[in-house]
Each structure stands twice: as C-alpha cells, then as structure tokens.
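Aggregate trends can hide what the representation actually does to any particular protein. The sequence in question and its structure tokens are set out directly beneath this paragraph.
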Amino acid sequence: MSTIEAANGMVDYTRDGGLYFAFVESIDELNGDALKERDDMPDYWRNILDRRDDDSLQFPTHGIWLDCVRYDYFSSITWRGDVCRRNEDEDAVLRRKQLIELDANQFAVILLLMNHADGSRALESFQEGSWHEIQLRQLHGLPVVAASDFDVAAVQACRLEWRYEVERQQRDVLHNVFNLEFLPDARWGGRGGEPWRPLSLPPSKDMGLYDLPYHMLKG
C-alpha cells in the first residue's frame, strides 16, 4: 500500500519549475462503474479520484503511466548525443556505466487519470512509446501522483499540465539515451541498485504492478 506524503518528506517533483520529458509507458481504458467503488483501491488512486471530484471533473476514462526525466537534467547530460554502436562491446559497456550513474532524484513516475472532457489535447496525443513535455505544479493542472518508481511506495500529490508532444529531433535524442536495444544483456542495476530498464520497469497487469483489481480496467 502506498503512502501519500507531503513534499517536505520526500523529493519535491514540482521543484524548479517542474518541467519533465515524459515517456508514455502505458495507457488503458478504465471501467467507470468500477471506479465508483473506492474502498478497495490503493490510496494513490483514491487520492486522484477525490481531487477530480473536488475539481468537478468527470470520471476518468483512461489511466496513463508516465516515466519522466527532468527537462533541465536531461539537457545537461553531456553524452546524450553520443552514438552507441550496435554490437560494439566497448560502446555497450560505456553506455551501461553512463546510465547507471544517472541521478535517480531526477526521475519520476506519474499516474494520470484522464477523460476526453478534461479540456486538454493530451489524451489524443498520448500513445504508448511517445514522448511529451509536461509540467508538474502544486496548484494548476490535472490531479496526479508522482513517485520515484512503479512500486509507488510513497507518492506526492501534485498537478500536471501537458505542454506538447516532443518533436522528432528531440525525440531522437531521448531515444538515443534511453534505448536499450544496443545492450546484449539489459539485466543490470540502477536507481540504487534495483533492476531497471530506463527509465524504469513499466507497469504490467500480468505482474500486478497496477495495484488495482482487474475489473477496474476495461476489457
């Protein structure tokens, strides 16, 4: 069970403007009727739904997991444009080292619940595997929760504003850094030594990482 914590007890994901590049790990259609029964939900799902009620927003139709890296941090990575040649062991060893050394505090996992009526073009733009620029804020935007990883052991309640889908040139740079296809063996440590596939381990209904009963996912 996750814990909703105040920002002063953990990383403040809204700090310094809260700008992120966000990768869409998954998007699922939700069962609206099932979402009305909240007693068995994880705290962080209930937190988002309660705040949507407070904002007079309609029931969400989709659940979206975003894996994010801070905009300014990514822009400061000096090797982000370096080519990693496929099947070149020396390149793979170097890139593995570079990824492991990334600062875990510069990443976030976000759960976003949306409805087409929310007034943002984001839902139409969010496709699995796409990159977006977003901003996390305290007072403005759609209710979300942010955590350090998909185990969502502790989350921060905040708000998300979608800015735009990343254009091809920037998307290619992001893919160059976080693509693991060039690694012969991607099972290695990061983010404090835990196995990850940058940015992290994507949620999977089969693995139970949604932490939500299956009947709440449509289909």
Notes: The longest strand covers residues 154-165. Helices lie at 32-35, 43-54, 71-76, 89-100, 122-125, 168-178. The chain has one domain: 3-212. The CA atoms of residues 84 and 91 lie 5 Å apart.
